[in-house]
Structures are given as C-alpha cells and as structure tokens.
Amino acid sequence: TAVSKFIDLPLSNMRKVIAARLTESKQEIPHYYLKVDIEMDRILELRTKFNSTPLLQETFGTFKLSVNDFIVKAAALALKKVPECNSAWHGDFIRQYETVDICVAVATPSGLITPIVTDADKRGLVSISGKVKELAAKAKINKLKPEEYQVFTLY
Predict the structure, then answer these.
(1) Fewest CB atoms within 10 Å of the CB: 7, 40, 100, 151?
(2) CA separation (Å) from 73 to 9, 70, 134?
(3) Using one digit for the tens of pLDDT, what is the confidence trace for 29-60?
(4) pTM higher than 0.85 for the full model?
C-alpha cells in the first residue's frame, strides 16, 4: 500500500483561538443561509464621488473607500436596527449585544483571520476604512492584540 507523505505543522495560539471560535460558532449558534442579489450601482457611484471630491479629502484627510467599507457600514446599521440579530445563543439564554462590532476577513501568510471593527454603527465610512486598513496591516505582520481579533464573552 502507498503511504502519503505529510508534515504536521504546530498551531500558533492565534490559530488555536480562531479554530476554537469557528467550531464553537458553527456548533452552538443557530445558522441559516440566505442568498440575495443586490444592485450596487448607486453605491459604486457614491464611492467614486467620495473618493474623488477634493473638499472631502481635505476635510477628512486622504482616503480611498472600498466597497467593503460600505458593506461593513450597512451591516452595522442593520444590526442596530434589528438588535435581535445582534445576539448569540448561549444554550439556556440569548445574549443581545448593545455594541455593534463587525469582523472582517483578512488573508495573512498563516491563514485567514477576522479582526474586529468595534462600534461600526457609530463610525463613519472614512473611520471604518481607516480601521480596516490598520487592522489588516497589523494582521499581515502578526501584530494584532488579542482584543483586536478575539471576542470575549462574559457569562
């Protein structure tokens, strides 16, 4: 019989936490799947206008908004509007969160990590954009603080 060659790679503490949280999420939080087609033409036009308006660049500093920044903001506002969706199942109770924190996926050399944009509902698009860029840069060089990518749940 042929034996496959392989190498076992040790997990970093960050990878262990991410794996545990993803497993916990999939096992303990009710899931449902939804597919929606979205017309983004107006958002794309608005993004182009914001990114090319000198007065905005002078007021807020140089920035370049991404489509993802608009999606993060929209998701945050939706969670604020429907707080029942901003909650987690804890077996015998549901915890409804008062803050709206959104995780964004960032590809790093060691795999995918999801840093947290805190208070995303209260941030403007430029603030969200800057925070995502800052967190992504830190993630890529493995410099995220635990509180920037871990969700701590107090029971």
Answers:
(1) 7
(2) 37, 5, 17
(3) 777 788 989 999 999 999 999 999 999 888 88
(4) no
